């Protein structure tokens, strides 16, 4: 049987991602090529993403990246079977670039254009790793825009167990980092600074830790960091590192305890961590340690696929296609507000 190939576009925020995924019968989908352009440097001067600039840059990058991806896979447009794109959630103007490109390309080639929910892309991304998970599992999805715990039974079978009631975990990292004078996006910078700090230097709150449910809240933590930051000399490198380490420890502890509670509640013994914050080394260490003690296996996406990328979008479309081919009852695709 001829392989089935899908080109995927991601443009929900500040990364333009294009990737090509191939499915062969009886095999796991394979990533053939991918291209990514990060706009981080462009937005850094403004301390955050400027939506208008993001849209314009996606327009500049999307076709050259597409050409580059096809070239490195040594394939032509006529060898594709579908075009996938991030439908949302994300910045409306940015999403429109990926959606418009995909829909136009699909129409001109007579192929289906497949909308993919951005979070479905994140949560399936570990299936491209060397150690892919098996269904069912608990997914901790922690990105710049979302913090969720889900029970994932199969492709399309997603049960929300808990989510943030205010800021996302990545937002907590980014906003705290900004208070410490670190560049955007602050998560990785704060993590690096935390390496030379003492995690118990400041007593910061662990919001909703004992709420009895699986929801998160990080807004109060940010306020507590602000209060501390105002009390100390931020020029003092050690004090800054201590505050960074204490902040990271608070976020990690909440994510860890809630993940363990979700595993207990569902009775599952597999945890998948996805989204940008899943790249955090301290979080990975804490989860690995606690899960090893409980006989729970933890799976992560490849580091480069934790943050936004086109591969996860093409993959999600491919896994949906495979599920239909396998005759599995088709699960409705999660829908995001169309851009
Ligand atoms: O998944 P993602 O690329 O975008 C969204 O869909 O939101 O996640 C980006 C988020 C940012 O908040 C960034 O600071 C955070 O992930 N992040 C990290 C690390 N790497 C990325 N946070 C903590 N530690 C890291 N190493
Ligand atoms: Zn994302």
Number of structural domains: 2
Proportion in helices: 40-55%
Kindly identify the CATH topology of the largest domain. Nucleotidyltransferase, domain 5
CATH class of the largest domain: Alpha Beta
Principal-axis shape equals globular
Note the gap between the termini.
Answer: 36 Å
Give the helix tally. Answer: 10
Strand order within the widest beta sheet: 3-2-1-4-5
Q: Would you tell me the overall average pLDDT?
A: 96
CATH architecture of the largest domain: 2-Layer Sandwich
Walk me through the topology.
Elements: E1 4-10, E2 15-23, E3 30-38, H1 40-44, H2 51-73, E4 82-88, H3 92-109, E5 113-117, H4 118-124, E6 137-142, E7 147-154, E8 157-163, H5 169-179, H6 186-194, H7 219-231, H8 237-266, E9 270-274, H9 281-293, E10 297-299, H10 311-325
Helix pairs in contact: 2-3, 4-10, 5-6, 5-7, 5-8, 6-8, 7-8, 8-9
Describe this protein with a few key phrases.
five-stranded mixed β-sheet, Nucleotidyltransferase, domain 5, acyltransferase, single chain, 2 domains, ATPase_NBD, 339 residues, binds 5'-O-[(R)-(carboxyoxy)(hydroxy)phosphoryl]adenosine, 10 helices, binds zinc ion, alpha/beta
């Amino acid at each position: 049987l001829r392989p089935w190939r899908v080109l995927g576009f991601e443009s929900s925020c500040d990364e333009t991602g294009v990737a090509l995924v191939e499915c062969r019968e009886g095999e796991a989908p394979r990533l053939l090529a991918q291209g990514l352009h990060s706009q981080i440097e462009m937005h850094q001067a403004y301390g955050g993403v400027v939506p208008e600039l993001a849209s314009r840059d996606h327009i500049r990058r999307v076709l050259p990246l597409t050409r580059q991806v096809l070239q490195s896979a040594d394939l032509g447009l006529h060898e594709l079977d579908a075009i996938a794109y991030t439908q949302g959630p994300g910045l409306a103007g940015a999403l429109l670039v990926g959606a418009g490109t995909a829909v136009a390309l699909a129409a001109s080639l007579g192929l289906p254009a497949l909308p993919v929910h951005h979070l479905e892309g994140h949560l399936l991304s570990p299936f491209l790793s060397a150690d892919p998970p098996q269904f069912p599992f608990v997914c901790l999805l922690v990105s710049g825009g979302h913090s969720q715990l889900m029970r994932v039974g199969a492709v399309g079978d997603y049960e929300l167990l808990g989510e943030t009631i205010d800021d996302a975990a990545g937002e907590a990292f980014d906003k705290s980092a900004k208070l410490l004078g670190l560049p955007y996006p602050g998560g990785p910078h704060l993590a690096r600074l935390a390496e030379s700090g003492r995690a118990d230097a400041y007593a910061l709150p662990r919001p909703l830790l004992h709420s009895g449910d699986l929801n998160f809240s990080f807004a109060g933590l940010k306020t507590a960091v602000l209060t501390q930051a105002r009390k100390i000399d931020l020029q003092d490198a050690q004090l800054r590192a201590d505050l960074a380490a204490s902040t990271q420890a608070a976020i990690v502890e909440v994510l860890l305890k809630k993940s363990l509670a979700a595993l207990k509640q569902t009775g599952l013994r597999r945890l998948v961590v996805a989204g940008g914050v899943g790249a955090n080394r301290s979080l990975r260490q804490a989860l690995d340690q606690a899960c090893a003690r409980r006989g729970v296996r933890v799976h992560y996406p490849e580091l480069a696929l934790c943050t936004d990328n086109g591969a996860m979008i093409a993959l999600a479309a491919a896994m949906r296609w495979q599920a239909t081919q396998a005759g599995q009852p088709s699960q409705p695709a999660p829908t995001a507000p169309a851009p």
